[in-house]
Amino acid sequence: MLAANPPKCPFFLTHSLPLSSSPSPSFKITCSAAAAEERSEIRLGLPSKGRMAADTLDLLKDCQLSVKHVNPRQYVAKIPELSNLEVWFQRPKDIVRKLLSGDLDLGIAGLDTVSEYGQGSEDLIIVHDALGYGECHLSLAIPKYGIFENINSLNELAQMPQWTREKPLRVATGFTYLGPKFVKENGLDHVSFSTADGALEAAPAMGIADAILDLVSSGITLKENNLKEIEGGVVLQSQAVLVASKRSLLKMKSALETTHEILERLEAHLKAEGQYTVVANMRGNSAQEVAERVLSQPSLAGLQGPTISTVYCKRDGQIKADYYAIVICVPKKALYKSVQQLRSIGGSGVLYSPLTYIFDEETPRWRELLSKLGL
């Protein structure tokens, strides 16, 4: 995300990263003594600070997986519902690095962080790619003024005659793997990258860079610094994801079982968000007749169709079944519309209640994970 409170006087430390060089500084990943095959407990890495950390804990709590963090100064915690799991609070980039080294088995981080620091490693598997928070995108931004005033697309930027081998387009970024990879894939021949500490948005105005490549959420910070995004300049759409070490899942049966439970809880909760159970009574001669009336309305189909059951009442000393109860699931945005449609076909006594979980027979993401593991 863009810095919430950028320094008033940003200080930039730069080093050149020519396009012809390696996309990112090379480093060797070595497994520590606590590698997955040498441990019995499963380790889950969670963001340690900021909005991402708070949203992650809230999501897990909503899935009945509350993290018990007795001492906020400690980096390890527990989730009581998962007895063989340890929670380790880390910086997002360290979560990715420790998944690669074998010191963590599972982790939650932004897709941008996973992509930048994972660098396409086959040992990282995205278990859930849409946890619903931390939304942003990695994008190229250029000034609105000067030689860029009429440049509105990546293609136009690439065709500007100003960029040569001797004087390349200078891009300031913290994404030294994804940045060079993106420009290479999009045919930009003369580009150099520099890393910068501080608010990247100030780099063009200070003459340190011609453009920036950074995470954007609302885009307000770009506008306030006279910068603009361009067509074709989005490198990556990002949000929080659940990622796992392929090595851990294959070598630790308990890790795969725990991943299955976490995934099912996440899927059930996220699918239920914004969904409501609707119960209504309706007169009818048979369940079939009532079903036909309900299904004649497009907003009343529910997940797989309405559940219809007999409503018994006592009248004149006898038990009669003049009414049927229908149960359907509708999204929040369609609540009032569903009331109107229910009334139009004879529904009454309409009740609504929010859903917490929707468990399917089996989540598609679990089948996808098994396929990635070759199981």
Give structural notes.
With 375 residues, the chain is α+β, with helices and mostly antiparallel strands. Helix content is 29%, strand content 29%. The chain contains 12 helices and 16 strands. The chain has helices at 50-62, 92-101, 111-118, 154-158, 178-185, 203-206, 220-224, 246-251, 253-272, 287-295, 335-344, 364-373, and strands at residues 16-18, 42-47, 76-78, 85-90, 106-110, 124-128, 136-143, 169-173, 191-194, 211-216, 227-238, 240-245, 275-283, 307-315, 318-331, 347-354. The strands form 3 sheets. A 6-stranded mixed β-sheet has the order 1-9-8-10-7-11. A 6-stranded mixed β-sheet has the order 3-4-2-5-12-6, with helices on both faces. The protein has a 4-stranded antiparallel β-sheet with strand order 14-15-13-16, covered by helices on one side. Strand 8, helix 5 and strand 9 form a beta-alpha-beta unit. Helix 2 packs across helix 3 (111-118). The protein is globular, with a radius of gyration of 27 Å. The relative contact order is 0.15. The model is unreliable at 1-16 and 18-34 (pLDDT under 50).
Provide mean pLDDT, rounded. 87
Classification by helices and strands? alpha+beta
* Strand coverage percent: 25-35%
Total DSSP helices:
12
- List unreliable stretches of 5+ residues: 1-16, 18-34
Radius of gyration: 27 Å
Helix proportion = 25-40%
Total beta strands: 16
H and E string: EEHEEHEHEEHEHEHEHEEHHEHEEHEH
Could you say which overall geometry the principal axes of the C-alpha atoms support?
globular
Strand neighbour order, sheet with most strands = 1-9-8-10-7-11
